[in-house]
Automatic annotation (TrEMBL):
Function description: Voltage-sensitive calcium channels (VSCC) mediate the entry of calcium ions into excitable cells and are also involved in a variety of calcium-dependent processes, including muscle contraction, hormone or neurotransmitter release, gene expression, cell motility, cell division and cell death.
KW Ion transport (keyword) present: yes
Protein name: Voltage-dependent L-type calcium channel subunit alpha
Residue ranges with Basic and acidic residues bias: 344-353
Topology within the bilayer: Multi-pass membrane protein
Binding site for Ca(2+): E267, E676
Organism: Homo sapiens (Human)
């Protein structure tokens, strides 16, 4: 470096430091300081050297070295603190306190609660600011802003500080940016740090933001196009009824946007279409053409664009599930390796013989056969001979004309080729569930004759079908009970029948417990969940017989659970088994989606309370704006009839769904997410003024952005997450039965295709006259001719209308008889060509 500096003409000054070594004056004294070579090369060298010499002396002083050492020590300690579990849970605790503070806000709250909330918000803001500064100091600015959560925290904290300054200096009202306090609730998602499945779900939702943003841009352009078109078609034309003010109109661009968005949600869109038809003169020729606009808008927007949200949800859920499965496999592999290192040789052998790592505990439960004793049935072998075509079938592709033709295909024009069927359609014999080796009730051994006879009875098909028949009768008797006249003769008869049914079901359980044992050993009766359900239902029925008090008679309602007993037959129906497994898996693992949706719903409810609490009240007399004015009576006229005035009392009423507290706001928003009546709440919120004041028409149109954002996030996306989760679950469960198969899906389909393929036979008559008719009805021209006749017949049927003339009616009857004759001729020709059994 000295040589290079002399070569470039830059003077190098040496001086003796504390350690006696030469120090280069032009070297930076910190990480953020840079070297200005231009000023060194020219200018006042003496002044530059003096400043550098002074900075160097200060940096080499004992105080400076002590300060740097102490700074590094503090940053290490602070970094360890902010990454500790104690600090993590402390922040989560503060977030919960912030949640309680925001959730406690409601309409007409006392002044002391308002003061406590303001103080708590300022204190929490100070604590969150301290957390942000501590993280910036310990991690450094560059490392701090790498995390998206840290960027979000910084934005919310800075917004809160700005809001506090503006409110305290009386520059703006307290509402302003107070919604940022509610957005701060999203920090609670940091709890996913110790919840892998929820963390993967949140990560997949965040990764889908880019796809959703592209879809939202397309949706926004779609809405703008149809809004502009609606303004051109219906602008100022929805005022045909002067007695009624319509809110869903196309009179201006913002209102047109809201109307198109309402049609996309499907809520009351038909009323808007009827208004459009009436705007053009009613259901006549020019007016009916208007419905084309609404049909295209609804089909393209609701059926196509909005369903893309479902596709995005399915894609991201599949990624989240695969990531969760990979993490489970990795954890199980680590656990097995850990046990293998510490286990004995015999235990190691057991671990080696265990199922594959990918077979999680949940999958074992799902794949467990639902049998009477809880044991998995023995493997069913497929006889390859059973998969071959029947030997008695005619191998010739052209059958003998003298044959009955029962096996001929209906459509002769289908190409000759194999038609595969899946293996799931095979009806294979299932063996009886083996009886456990352990004794039953410590009395009946596995060789006991009575126990063997009980085992034979409960596995008999007649016994199973008889029990299912009694289950059906019991369900019908429960449905036939009279809930009003409890002492009626019908209820008396049904009550006696209930004694009989309960006795039969009790006998069934006793026989199964005798055959398989009660619950102590593996494969016993109570080791199966469906058997426990049966036992619970019968026990409730037996207990209800001994209870005569009407207050406890409600327990009898639980007897309806008896209708769930047919689910024991799912082992005989593979499709039903998969459906039941998917339902249980979806219920067990859908909790993560419920948590995310509930938290978002809660956040929007808190924002709604900030925006609309106490502002949705209105007086029945629209001329009054306050509760104090809304007193006494007022005169109204029904249907605008001035000659018939009606005197009604004034009343100060709140909206059916309001935002006066968090629980009421969550209920109101839930109705919005279902699209039922949400335009009424939307326009009620748009007209809201201030607290304890009546509505003003279109006072805050911009507030509709709140409802639009909520519907897009919750109704369009999160609700589709539930549907997508069911789809992903069905896909995964459909592959569970092949998880130990070495063939992939395409290879399995090829094997099934090869096993079930058989040639299709084509009927060709050998009689010369019959062959000519067969040739005609199989020709392409004949098929086109019949298609044209069917089309003309459909048009004739569609031309009938109310108020048609007699001449038109006679013409239609003649045409219908003509078409009926032509179709009859077609039927006769096909009967001649194919023979009755072949044609049918």
């Amino acid at each position: 470096q000295l040589c290079l500096r002399h070569a470039h003409g830059v003077p190098v000054h040496h001086h003796g430091g504390l350690d006696g070594r030469a120090v280069l004056v032009s070297m930076p004294t910190s990480e953020t300081e840079s070297v200005n070579t231009e000023n060194v090369a020219g200018g006042d060298i003496e002044g530059e050297n003096c400043g550098a010499r002074l900075a160097h002396r200060i940096s080499k002083s004992k105080f400076s070295r002590y300060w740097r050492r102490w700074n590094r020590f503090c940053r290490r300690k602070c970094r360890a603190a902010v990454k500790s579990n104690v600090f993590y849970w402390l922040v989560i605790f503060l977030v919960f306190l912030n949640t309680l503070t925001i959730a406690s806000e409601h309409y007409n709250q006392p002044n002391w609660l308002t003061e406590v909330q303001d103080t708590a918000n300022k204190a929490l803001l100070a604590l969150f600011t301290a957390e942000m500064l501590l993280k910036m100091y310990s991690l450094g600015l560059q490392a701090y802003f790498v995390s998206l959560f840290n960027r979000f925290d910084c934005f919310v904290v800075c917004g809160g500080i700005l809001e506090t300054i503006l409110v305290e200096t009386k520059i703006m009202s307290p509402l302003g940016i107070s919604v940022l306090r509610c957005v701060r609730l999203l920090r609670i998602f940091k709890i996913t740090r110790y919840w892998n499945s929820l963390s993967n779900l949140v990560a997949s939702l965040l990764n889908s933001v880019r796809s959703i943003a592209s879809l939202l841009l397309l949706l926004f352009l779609f809405i703008i196009i149809f809004s502009l078109l609606g303004m051109q078609l219906f602008g100022g034309k929805f005022n045909f009824d002067e007695m009624q003010t319509r809110r869903s109109t196309f009179d201006n661009f913002p209102q047109s946007l809201l109307t198109v968005f309402q049609i996309l949600t499907g809520e009351d869109w038909n009323s808007v279409m009827y208004d459009g038809i009436m705007a053009y003169g009613g259901p006549s020729f020019p007016g009916m053409l208007v419905c084309i606009y609404f049909i295209i808008l609804f089909i393209c927007g609701n059926y196509i664009l909005l369903n893309v949200f479902l596709a995005i949800a399915v894609d991201n859920l599949a990624d989240a599930e695969s990531l969760t499965s990979a993490q489970k496999e990795e954890e199980e592999e680590k656990e097995r390796k850990k046990l293998a290192r510490t286990a004995s040789p015999e235990k190691k052998q057991e671990l080696v013989e265990k199922p594959a790592v990918g077979e999680s505990k949940e999958e074992k439960i799902e794949l467990k056969s639902i049998t009477a004793d809880g044991e998995s049935p023995p493997a069913t072998k497929i006889n390859m001979d059973d998969l071959q075509p029947n030997e008695n079938e005619d191998k010739s592709p052209y059958p003998n004309p003298e044959t009955t033709g029962e096996e001929d295909e209906e459509e002769p024009e289908m190409p000759v080729g194999p038609r595969p069927r899946p293996l799931s359609e095979l009806h294979l014999k299932e063996k009886a569930v083996p009886m456990p080796e352990a004794s039953a009730f410590f009395i009946f051994s596995s060789n006991n004759r009575f126990r063997l006879q009980c085992h034979r009875i409960v596995n008999d098909t007649i016994f199973t079908n008889l029990i299912l028949f009694f289950i059906l009768l019991s369900s019908i008797s429960l449905a036939a009970e009279d809930p009003v006249q409890h002492t009626s003769f019908r209820n008396h008869i049904l009550g006696n029948a209930d004694y009989v049914f309960t006795s039969i079901f009790t006998l069934e359980i006793i026989l199964k417990m005798t055959a398989y044992g009660a619950f102590l050993h593996k494969g016993s009766f109570c080791r199966n969940y469906f058997n426990i359900l049966d036992l619970l239902v019968v026990s409730v029925s037996l207990i209800s017989f001994g209870i005569q008090s009407s207050a406890i008679n409600v327990v009898k309602i639980l007897r309806v659970l008896r209708v769930l007993r047919p689910l024991r037959a799912i082992n005989r129906a593979k499709g039903l088994k998969h459906v039941v497994q998917c339902v249980f898996v979806a219920i067990r693992t859908i909790g993560n989606i419920v948590i995310v949706t509930t938290l978002l719903q809660f956040m929007f409810a808190c924002i709604g309370v900030q925006l609309f609490k106490g502002k949705l009240y209105t007086c029945s007399d629209s001329s009054k704006q306050t509760e104090a004015e809304c007193k006494g009576n007022y005169i109204t006229y029904k249907d605008g009839e001035v000659d018939h005035p009606i005197i009604q009392p004034r009343s100060w009423e709140n909206s059916k769904f309001d935002f006066d507290n968090v629980l009421a706001a969550m209920m109101a928003l839930f109705t919005v997410s279902t699209f039922e009546g949400w335009p009424e709440l939307l326009y009620r919120s748009i007209d809201s003024h201030t607290e304890d004041k009546g509505p003003i028409y279109n006072y805050r149109v911009e507030i509709s952005i709140f409802f639009i954002i909520y519907i897009i996030i919750i109704a369009f996306f999160m609700m589709n997450i539930f549907v997508g989760f069911v789809i992903v679950t069905f896909q995964e469960q459909g592959e569970q039965e092949y998880k130990n198969c070495e063939l992939d899906k395409n290879q399995r389909q090829c094997v099934e295709y090869a096993l079930k393929a058989r040639p299709l036979r084509r009927y060709i008559p050998k009689n010369q006259h019959q062959y000519k008719v067969w040739y005609v009805v199989n020709s392409t021209y004949f098929e086109y001719l019949m298609f044209v006749l069917i089309l003309l017949n459909t048009i004739c049927l569609a031309m009938q209308h109310y108020g048609q003339s007699c001449l038109f009616k006679i013409a239609m009857n003649i045409l219908n008889m003509l078409f009926t004759g032509l179709f009859t001729v077609e039927m006769i020709l096909k009967l001649i060509a194919f023979k009755p059994k072949v044609g049918l």
